[in-house]
Amino acid sequence: MKPIPEMSIEELGGLVCESLQKAGITVTLTGGACVAIWSGGQYISHDLDFIEEGPVSQRKIREVLGQLGFTARMGRHFVHPESEFFVEFPVGPLMVGDERVEKFRVRKTLAGALRLLSPTDCVKDRLAAFYLWNDREALQQALLVAHAQKIDLANVRRWSVAEDNEGKFRLFRSKLRARRP
Predict the structure, then answer these.
(1) CA neighbor of 96 nearest in space, from 16, 28, 46
(2) What are the DSSP calls for 87-134, one per residue?
(3) 173 and 90 in one domain?
(4) For residue range 18-36, what is the model confidence (pLDDT) as tens digits?
(5) Which of 54, 109, 141, 151 has a 20 to 30 A CA-CA distance from 38?
(6) Burial (Cβ within 10 Å: 0-12, 13-18, ≥19) of residue 106
(7) Which domain holds residue 168?
(8) What distance, in Å, lies between the first and last C-alpha atoms of the chain?
(9) What are 88-101's pLDDT values in tens digits?
(10) Which CATH number characterizes residue 113's domain?
(11) Is residue 70 pLDDT above 80, yes or no?
(12) Domain count, the chain
């Protein structure tokens, strides 16, 4: 296994995810790190946001990450002295907008198995920020993933209607179609 300073964001995510899993803690990667992975590196993120499944002792997370060389900063934020990436644990449950995420993907890395949002749910996660806060960077992130990966556009539309944002979905879809060959 590579030393932590040489790991990609995906490899570090795999190491953290698998280390926590071995300790009985199930987490799923979300946010910008998913965009970085699903866009093939077209987006750069320096944080890994993991959502915990079920109640998890903060002490237990600190112990596992401490064994990897991470220290806690500001509660649920962890840094490693030799890594440009930091790890955070936003409060769950695992949701995109008002919809609970029930399915996820697993990617094998040399450092461990990484559990993360699917490309479709990653797009919905980014669109949620666009819908709620009119975050144009989040819209661009959703487009990066949608261009790089096969997504279920009908599912994104259904979800967008349920989120009362069909108009912003149409804008996303038109931008998506404008860049397709």
Answers:
(1) 28
(2) EE----S-EETTEE----EEEEETTEEEEE--HHHHHHHHHHHHHHH-
(3) no
(4) 999 999 999 999 999 999 9
(5) 54
(6) exposed
(7) 120-179
(8) 39
(9) 999 999 999 999 99
(10) 3.30.460
(11) yes
(12) 2
